[in-house]
Amino acid sequence: MTKINHFSSEADLSTQKDKSYACRISDKWNSNVPLQVSQEEFWEHIHEIEQGSFTSLDEGFQKFEHWKTELLKSRL
After folding, report:
1. CA distance 33 to 26
2. pLDDT tier at 1 (50, 70, 90 boundaries)?
3. Neighbouring C-beta atoms of residue 37, cutoff 10 Å
4. What is the average pLDDT value for the chain, to the nearest integer?
5. Is 54 helix (H, G, I), strand (E, B) or coil?
6. Spatial CB neighbours of 20, under 8 Å, sequence gap ≥ 6
């Protein structure tokens, strides 16, 4: 949990909230900006991902091997 007691006034706090919101809605990934989400938002995002389609590990390995053999064939 982040400490916010270093803000000098309520105006600074609202400015910081605006900045963190802007970081969250940005379309471009910026590795210099830390992840600015609450724990609830993070878990909500994880649960959304879990609802998607998944490939089993065995099926993924089979697809990779197929891709690798096709790539090696095309290089010859």
Report:
1. 11
2. very low
3. 14
4. 75
5. coil
6. 36
Q: How far apart are CA 41 and CA 23, in angstroms?
A: 14
DSSP state of 44: H
Q: What are the helix (H) ranges across 1-76?
A: 10-25, 39-50, 57-75
Round to whole Å and give the CA distance between 31 and 33.
6
Going by the DSSP 8-state scheme, the letter that residue 64 receives in this structure is: H
The whole-angstrom separation of Cα 69 and Cα 61 is: 12
The first and second tokens of residue 34, run together, are 């830390």
How do residues 32-63 score in pLDDT, each as one tens digit? 877 778 889 889 988 988 898 888 899 999 99
Tokens of 73: 């064939």
From the CA atom positions of the chain, what is the Rg in Å? Answer: 22
